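ligand=glutathione
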Amino acid sequence: MDLIRVYRIPFSTNVERVALAAGHKGVPIEWVDVDADDRSPVEAVSGQRLVPILVTGDEVVADSPAILEWLEARFPDPPLLPRDPARRAEVRVFADWFNRVWKRAPNEIADHGATDSLSAEMRAHVEIFEALLQDRDYLFGDFGLADVTAFPFLKYAVLGLPPDDDELFHRVLVEYQPLRGDSPLHAWVLRVDAHPRS
Ligand SMILES: N[C@@H](CCC(=O)N[C@@H](CS)C(=O)NCC(=O)O)C(=O)O
């Protein structure tokens, strides 16, 4: 197996997705730590500024959803996606919704400030995650792509901000996702947090 390098910056949610996915599969990663204020190594390797970037052999894969699919294709066991095609499609629809729809409200709040409708949208989305966790331990039953995709963002509602994490976006995730004491997200966050990371 070629060495797999992944470029990262501290506290990156999208990087943590890759760490959890690779950890689940037992795939070792050589992390390349990049200064958040100097992205020149990331630009040099990928032509853009965002992390994570996976580099192996002569392949360069940008964008965490693409990296997760790359890992699943190269290292199918243990899987991140269900074997059944319909259930696999459902999980992919969830991940796409999370990336295109769920992310919009916290990004808007971080970039332009909160509105009543954005705050309500974030609270309504919390209820969707809680419903998915009704009577099951992970978002789609077994641990997998949905959990890896959502956990790094939803964990802030339960764990709060780590020391030294001064990202405004992460503060939004703490402040605009208030949880009831009996929300199933508490146990889910602790359950996913216990999974290995590469
Ligand atoms: N769609 C990309 C987004 C990547 C992304 O936004 N990465 C953040 C870290 S979590 C980043 O590099 N932010 C730096 C910036 O916006 O300059 C993915 O999922 O990988």
